[in-house]
Amino acid sequence: MGKCVRYECIQQLMEIYVHSQKQYAYAAVTSISPLMRVFFEERTRERLDFIDEIQSGIEAGHTASYLGSTFQQLYELNTELYGRDELNSLQTTDIDAFPMDENALEICDRLLTKDLPPNLLLLVGKHAIKIELSILSMILLKALLED
C-alpha cells in the first residue's frame, strides 16, 4: 500500500471518528437511560482521544487525553470545535443505524495488514480492539435494557 493510499485510509478513519464522536455526544445528551448515557459519553471520549492521538502520531507531537473530562467539558469542546448548532442539527436515529463503528473497524483491519510506521500500527490496533468492544458492548447493553 503506497503512502498516499495509507494516508487516505487514515483520513477516512479520522472523518468517521469525527462524525461518530458527534453522534455519540448527541446520543449522550438525549439519552434517557443513565446507563446508555455513560456508555455514549465513554465512546465520545474514545473518539476524541483517537483523533488527537492519530494527529499526534502523524505530526510526532504529544497528545491530550479526554478520559478524565466531564461530559460538560466534552460538550463545550464539541461546541468549540463544531459550533453550537452542529450538535442540535444532527439527524438522530436508533444507535443500530450508526454504521460508523463498523466502517471504522473495516478501515482499521485494512490498515493493520499494511506497512504502517510502528507507532501508527500500535495506535490503529488499539483502537480496532476498542471499536470491537464498543460494538459488542452496545449489543449487550441493548439486550439488557430490552428485558
Q: Would you kindly provide a written description of the structure presented here, covering whatever features stand out?
A:
By secondary structure, the protein is mainly alpha-helical. About 10% of the residues have low confidence. The chain starts with a helix and ends with a helix. The chain has six helices and no strands. Helix 1 packs antiparallel against helix 2, helix 2 runs antiparallel to helix 6 and helix 5 packs antiparallel against helix 6.
| Structural class computed from helices and strand pairing | mainly alpha
The rounded Rg comes to 15 Å
Reading the helices and strands in chain order gives HHHHHH
Sketch the major β-sheet: none
Percent range for helical residues? over 70%
What's the tally of helices? 6
Strand content: under 5%
In total, the number of strands is 0
Q: Unreliable stretches, pLDDT < 50, 5 or more residues?
A: 61-67, 90-97
Chain oligomer state: single chain
Mean pLDDT: 76
How would you describe this structure in keywords?
mainly alpha
Q: Could you give the topology of this structure?
A:
Layout lengths: L2 H28 L3 H26 L11 H12 L1 H6 L10 H13 L5 H29 L1
Short description:
This protein has helices spanning 3-30, 34-59, 71-82, 84-89, 100-112, 118-146. Mean pLDDT is 76; it is low at 61-67 and 90-97.
